[in-house]
Amino acid sequence: MLVIKVGGSAGINYDLVCDDIALLVKEGQPIVLVHGGSHETNVLSEKLGKPPRILTSPQGFTSRYTDAETLDIFAMVYAGKMNTRIVERLQKRGVNAVGLSGLDGRLLEGPRKANVRAVVDGRQVLVRDDFTGKVERVNAALLRLLLDHGYTPVVSPPACSTAGEAINVDGDRAAAMIAAALGAKQLIILSNVPGLLRNFPDERTLIPRIAYDELEQALSFAEGRMKKKVLGASEAIAGGVSQVIFGDARIPRPVFHAMNGAGTVIER
Amino acid sequence: MLVIKVGGSAGINYDLVCDDIALLVKEGQPIVLVHGGSHETNVLSEKLGKPPRILTSPQGFTSRYTDAETLDIFAMVYAGKMNTRIVERLQKRGVNAVGLSGLDGRLLEGPRKANVRAVVDGRQVLVRDDFTGKVERVNAALLRLLLDHGYTPVVSPPACSTAGEAINVDGDRAAAMIAAALGAKQLIILSNVPGLLRNFPDERTLIPRIAYDELEQALSFAEGRMKKKVLGASEAIAGGVSQVIFGDARIPRPVFHAMNGAGTVIER
């Protein structure tokens, strides 16, 4: 079992990722693909006159401020355009993909955190009416049901709150929860950088290998969105995944390169 | 087995439709819900500076001109916002809904019709590069797999071309194909009118009952979007569905009213 997360930043080549997935699925490898959509969401938000607002927590983690209108935009991009176009790419390559959001069958479930602490201009504020949360349960039975019948699940946020509401959750951490719930050996997290960089954005400072007990320290130099990936890696390995690899989704054979250890390999 | 199609026109009350579905699913009724999204698609198209273009065929049927950019907008609204929010409504009501587009598992498959004949200013023209088509095959096994495991499928266009491309298809006719493929007894088609009207929009001219062999004639006075519903009804009954009912999705208990024969009942 292989779980692949492909990010949503600019520069990611989904065709190349889907090329690799098609080869692996044809070899009989069960795969769950999880995808993001942050760049497209920013573009659509701007076009609709609702520019994105990024919240920074007191611990330095960033997240998108998601009121009801933002969640509509988020669902349009993630569950709508991105998911449909990735499923289309896979269908064109002979992979019988099925797209799912975290609401479908309560695939990704967890509590909504309506009040979020954030730092604005150096001061802590409480943001209310945020539709965000954290995945605590994965409906692994639904993924297995589809995999056992020859389908390849393509999963994206939003997730489902305990009360059944659509909530924005972090895709990397959702992928980590899925990998742990399915007992995956590898979790591959692809984005628009070659891996974890000691001095972002200098790609010559790529860290090829991190031990699980060094992850805490890695959080200190991981920039912006990479912080959540490090957190996801830590959660996946705590959940029993053998290896998490941060790979580059801009190059040919992105999945194979990562599977073979190119990028940053994290293991216990 | 009950297949319900709820339209995408302005005025439709999805909360009321979902209230009824929740009651029926709790009683053990297997349901597949198919939904539209035309009104929201028009609104988003206008906002994005890409106003909708409606094509009229030489036979008087209307369809949306769907180039690649329009299909993105279409997928954002149908598979994104509408599908997510309907699944959310059902999850809030305790129904374990799973949203699917026609690409998922090639649920709705058929040939793409890249060249479409249309009448523009009284002249026939050939519109090229249209991503539209017609559903010819339904993956009923996928729907049954989900239903047998306690899930309620919520289905929307786009569909999947034979080559795996996302294509715009008519939702009413897709619902008819699904009802026939599943051997459903009833197909309920809800919209923002009380049923088929002899003189649209005069609601006092509601036709309470039409025999299957009168449907050809009904096509002559069915206005705009109702033409496709009449065509869908005809296809469903030809496919073995006992009864098709056009009901009103603006009133309380919309599904129960239709099931009990309010609206226009079509049977062999």
Short structural summary:
Chain A is α/β, with parallel strands linked by helices and 268 residues long. Helix content of chain A is 36%, strand content 24%.
Q: Could you name the key traits of this structure?
A:
268 residues; globular; homodimer; 8 helices; 16 strands; eight-stranded mixed β-sheet
Compute the average pLDDT of chain A: 95
CATH level-3 fold name of chain A = Carbamate kinase
What about the largest sheet of chain A? 8 strands, mixed
Q: List the strand order in the largest sheet of chain A.
A: 5-10-2-1-13-15-16-14
What is the CATH C-level name of chain A? Alpha Beta
Q: What's the assembly state of these chains?
A: homodimer
Strand content of chain A: 15-25%
Rg over CA atoms of chain A: 17 Å
Largest interface: A-B, 41 and 41 residues
Order of helices and strands of chain A: EHEHEEHEEEEEHEEEHEEHHEHE
CATH superfamily of chain A: Acetylglutamate kinase-like
How many alpha or pi helices of chain A?
8
Q: What is the CA–CA distance across the termini of chain A?
A: 19 Å
Kindly give the count of domains of chain A. 1
The poorly predicted ranges of chain A are: none
Q: Quick one: overall form of chain A? A: globular
Q: How many strand units of chain A?
A: 16
Looking at the overall shape, the CATH architecture of chain A is 3-Layer(aba) Sandwich
The helicity of chain A comes to 25-40%
Class derived from helix and strand content of chain A: alpha/beta
